UniProtKB/TrEMBL annotation:
GO molecular function terms listed in the Swiss-Prot or TrEMBL record: branched-chain-amino-acid transaminase activity
Organism this protein belongs to: Sarcina ventriculi (Clostridium ventriculi)
Main EC class the enzyme belongs to: transferase
Name used for this protein in its record: Branched-chain-amino-acid aminotransferase
Phylogenetic lineage: Bacteria, Bacillati, Bacillota, Clostridia, Eubacteriales
Enzyme Commission number(s): 2.6.1.42
This protein's UniProt keywords: Amino-acid biosynthesis, Aminotransferase, Branched-chain amino acid biosynthesis, Pyridoxal phosphate, Transferase
Signal peptide extent: none
Pathway the protein takes part in: Amino-acid biosynthesis; L-leucine biosynthesis; L-leucine from 3-methyl-2-oxobutanoate: step 4/4; Amino-acid biosynthesis; L-valine biosynthesis; L-valine from pyruvate: step 4/4; Amino-acid biosynthesis; L-isoleucine biosynthesis; L-isoleucine from 2-oxobutanoate: step 4/4
InterPro entries found in the cross-reference section: Aminotrans_IV, Aminotrans_IV_CS, Aminotransferase-like, B_amino_transII, BCAT-like_C, BCAT-like_N, BCAT_family
Cofactor(s) annotated in UniProt: pyridoxal 5'-phosphate
Length: 341
């Protein structure tokens, strides 16, 4: 067993840290190899890899949580497995059996146990699975070989002093095309979002919100998170569109809203000209958990929801229940928690 880390768990951000082990598996001649853990955090690949030139790659993000009694658990890794296979299919890459994906996640967490933050700090171990097309190839076609890797980094609690709302602006750009790769978790969508993201930061916003690329009238994504709103008659509403990345956090919140909080829940159109129906709004995803949305700027006007400085009561309840389930303090729905140890 390696020694304890000297990490200050209460002051972790979202930054790369070299942990002890990562998993790597190679696909060649039609099959994945067994895969193994390695201490080497560098990859050596062909200069002609499709991942480098044509964006043939995809990734996932999930977290391992330390519970009050010291055990470690993953939150719905089977959903990440389904989603990566969806992204892989879309980019003509070989799928990964669910068992291989989940076991590799568990092996990486176990091998880096000293980096799983203590319960009570709000910090977690973030896992980053990815698949890249590699091998010697110059034409635009699927790669001859693939690498599937998973590394992990301890990350801090997003909100250290309680949930604080932030403001967003509506972007003039689209992140994905109406019939493009928006629903796949691929790097190309992120490359396409960097300029819009930088503009939002420079203008003092947390990030930008993308409207639907076909009509520019409906909310789609909040940066790299999904949108939800709570209407004045207590309905949880979230956009439905083929160019949104289906957030596992979002689908979990829909279940929590209905089954734990007794709210009505629906997926549908969220028109940017009709934000008055909402009394609260938020952005959700694995990294941010829930970010309360203070206001949204559109056509030079800031539409404020509950408050620019305080989280709304329903958003707060959704957050507490979700985080409670993830850290093992609230009873989880059947099948959501995978024990690592
Ligand atoms: C990963 C991701 C999300 C959040 O999904 P979760 O499964 O909740 O982590 C939302 N939008 C985009 C564009 C993403 O890549």
């Amino acid at each position: 067993m390696k020694q304890e880390t000297n990490i200050d768990w209460n002051n972790l951000g979202f930054n790369y840290i070299k942990t002890d082990f990562r998993y790597i598996s190679t696909w060649k001649n039609g099959a994945w190899d067994e895969g193994h853990l390695t201490e080497d955090n560098m990859l050596s690949i062909s200069e002609a890899s499709t991942a480098l030139h044509y964006g043939q790659q995809c990734f996932e993000g999930l977290k391992a949580y330390r519970t009050k009694n010291g055990s470690i658990q993953l939150f719905r890794p089977n959903e990440n497995s389904k989603r990566i296979n969806n992204s892989l299919k879309k980019l003509l890459m070989p799928e990964i059996p669910e068992e291989k994906f989940i076991n590799a996640c568990i092996d990486v967490v176990k091998a880096n146990e000293r980096f799983v933050p203590p319960y009570g700090t709000g910090a977690t171990l973030y896992l980053r699975p990815f698949v890249i097309g590699v091998g010697h190839n110059i034409g635009v076609k699927p790669a001859p070989e693939y690498l599937f890797g998973i590394f992990c980094v301890p990350v801090g609690a997003y909100f250290k002093e309680g949930l604080k709302p932030v403001n967003f602006m509506i972007s003039d750009y689209d992140r994905a095309a109406p019939r493009g790769t928006g629903s796949a978790k691929v790097g190309g969508n992120y490359a396409a979002s960097m300029q819009a993201h930088e503009i939002a930061l420079k203008r003092g916003f947390a990030d930008c919100i993308y409207l639907d690329p076909a009509t520019n009238t409906k909310i789609e994504e909040v940066g790299a998170a999904n949108f939800f709103g709570i209407t004045k008659n207590d309905e949880f509403i979230t956009p439905l569109s083929p160019s949104i990345l289906p957030s596992i956090t979002k689908y979990s919140l829909m279940h929590i809203a209905k089954e734990y909080l007794g709210l009505k829940v629906s997926e549908g159109d969220v028109y940017i000209d009709n934000l008055d129906i909402f009394k609260e709004a938020g952005a959700c995803g694995t990294a941010a958990v829930i970010t309360p949305i203070g206001g949204i700027e559109y056509k030079n006007t800031l539409h404020v929801f509950y408050s620019e400085t305080e989280v709304g009561p329903i958003t707060k309840k959704l957050y507490d229940t979700l985080v409670g389930i993830q850290f093992g303090d609230v009873k989880a729905p059947e099948g959501w928690i995978y024990k690592v140890k």
